[in-house]
Please model this.
Amino acid sequence: MPVHPHSTGPDAAAEDLERLRAQLDALDQVLLDTVRDRIRCCVRIAGVKRRHSVPMMQPHRIAIVQERAAAFAAENDIDADFLHRLYDLIIDETCRVEDLVMAGEDG
Model:
């Protein structure tokens, strides 16, 4: 929701902040849901790898994901190093979960 440029005073600022924070909270929920869904997808991928004796590590896939994030950063004026570090964390967690699935444990 856009901030109203003609709003003035502390009440207007509080209303604008409340509206924007509600929008941010909704976006955070989408982000968290997406991370959960990504991990669940990786669990399914690990199950396929386990059933078909495919090695867990697929470095070319990691490179593809990181390249896509870098391109997204460039197209959307987001710091590429930030997205690289974010994906490092996401990939580390999904590898951890995939390792558990590959070992026959619950993710």
